[in-house]
Amino acid sequence: MIKTNLLKRLFNIRGMGQVITVGAGLIVMCVVFGIINPLFFSPVNVANLLRQIAPILLIGIAQSYVLITGNIDLSIGSVVGMSCMVSATLMTRGIDPWVAAGITIVICILTGVINGFLVSGCKLPSFIGTLGTMTIARGVAQIVNNNYNTNLIGDGPVANAFRNFFYYGKTFGIFNGIIIAIVLWFIFNFLLSKTRTGRHIYATGSNLEAARLSGVNTLNTVIKAYVVSAFCAGVVGLITCATTGMGTMDAGNSYELYAVAAAVIGGVSTLGGQGILLGTVVGACIWGALANGLQFAGAPVAIRNIVIGVIVVLSVLMDVIVRNRRTDKTKTKTNTKASLVNPG
Known about the structure:
Blueprint: H1 2-12, H2 16-36, H3 43-68, H4 76-92, H5 97-121, H6 126-143, H7 157-168, E1 170-171, E2 174-175, H8 176-194, H9 196-206, H10 208-213, H11 218-244, H12 255-265, H13 277-296, H14 301-341
Antiparallel strand pairs: 1-2
């Protein structure tokens, strides 16, 4: 009886039903890949898989925040590239890596503020507003070093400390990139689920006008969501820079699509107001496991992209169907009550 009540309470948590369903699918998928190639579960591959998942989780968090407000951020991938190029360019020109990282994050946050103001303040459709900043950020990534990838950021003690902190180093036997993703997940999950800001984000995505009439500052709320998005993308850019040891102009290409995939597969609604970051973890794991498992199975990259695309389309389709059914049920109940009150 206690177990039954616990399961009911678990499924009553907003968005948890899809998280559990998708999580079960993730387990089945991993078992299948393990049967195809036992090396899938080898310690080395599991460690590499988690390192691949970490940046996808961060950009998934970024997109989740924005999607829950009822918007979208197409600039995530370009902000990753801008972060990678700006930080690496500053380092190759003699700036301390930690100062360069700080300047880069500030620039990324300003990009998030601009995105939020364009969407909520200027009333631009989020698709158009962030499409513009996507192009601008990619242009900055290209022009900051005169349309060239940067040289290596160096192999001195400070540069190595930077690379170890964001990627190569370990803490308690776990790669730092994984720890950074976990720590940021806990911070932003707490912000979304336990604070007033989080409640305002859900309210804004559920019904913008109702949230505004309830006293929610929707402009600030949307800006905060985009700032979180840009910050996470900036951190991924620093991780990319630490991984390669240089700035590459094409860093972050297609990451906005991976971010949508991680969020939507995990149950974050593209219509706003629904989703939890635990689902984003599952979504990121599915993306990573698919990419890694299909590689072990000998499948080409094209097949991986097709499979992920199909999963994203099906996830969005399921979300729309469920939303429409709920709307229809609500309308039916309202009409029934109205007919009882006014039988004539």
